[in-house]
Amino acid sequence: MATQTYTQIELLSANGTVLRRVSTAPPRLPTNDEIPIIDLAPIDGTLDERKALTSRIKAASENTGFFYIRNHRIPEELIQTSLSQAKTFFDQPLSEKMKIDSSASNVSSGYHGVGSTQSDLSIFALALGEREDYFDDVTSHPGADALYIHYPGIPDVAADSDIDVGIGSHTDIQCFTLLWQDNSGGLQVLSAQDEWLDARPIEGTLVVNIGDFLQRLSNNKFKSTVHRVYNRQPDSRYSMPFFFGFNPEAVCKVVPSCVDDEHPPLYEPISCGEVCS
Ligand SMILES: O=C(O)CCC(=O)C(=O)O
Ligand SMILES: [Fe+2]
């Protein structure tokens, strides 16, 4: 096997700037364990089917913290409507776009049909070994942000060009992220061996990834993993991430099922508002 070479990247996280070793090799496809495709249909199944689903989500959350979901129940029509709204918005001249104060925009409204943070977090509560209603009290009015992202294409990009359009290496700070990406590709996820994985778009799926706050509450059992996006092609890339948080003022401690004599809590109780803002 060829020798791997590595470089250092700089990450801005809630804990300040962190250096991380990364391979300089081009991204490779993930294995099924690294970024599994999980079918959510068993949510309505028998108790055994739901347990099997929970253990798949647990394994993925503890491994890379990224997985694709199938049968996610977000209607394709809602996705397409949101996407065309986003494209219409981005097609306007910059002067028009600047008129919209981002704090006043309602890009998240399209997602309201998606389901509540409560029901989405119940599966993570089960995967952590708690009752499914464990997070209900802290998710009655969660902070939730939706983004539409437009990565302009680079016409005539030379193979050796160092022009990059994208989002640099980062972790997501909230509980978890639900991501729709178009067919461009470009999302890369750092593996446990510090290699970039190509989290390519897969038809009919969305990407879910664990954020810093859930990693913290899980006493680091669940992984909030570094990822980045580059659009190195002539065409635009569009994506729609939705970041799920907890009630901003709710002070949350490491969940009891993740603490024992050998694993004392690594973190003090804190609110999502304090660390996620
Ligand atoms: O555009 C994407 O595919 C992901 C964007 C992302 O990682 C983020 O906004 O945190
Ligand atoms: Fe992200």
TrEMBL record:
Domain (Fe2OG dioxygenase) ranges: 142-246
Domain of life from the UniProt record: Eukaryota
Pfam families: 2OG-FeII_Oxy (PF03171), DIOX_N (PF14226)
GO biological process: small molecule biosynthetic process
Family: Belongs to the iron/ascorbate-dependent oxidoreductase family.
UniProt keyword annotations, A-Z: Iron, Metal-binding, Oxidoreductase
InterPro entries, A to Z: DIOX_N (IPR026992), IPNS-like_FE2OG_OXY (IPR044861), IPNS-like_sf (IPR027443), Oxoglu/Fe-dep_dioxygenase_dom (IPR005123)
This protein's name: DNA, SC010
Keyword GTP-binding: no
One term of GO molecular function: oxidoreductase activity
Membrane-traversing stretches: none
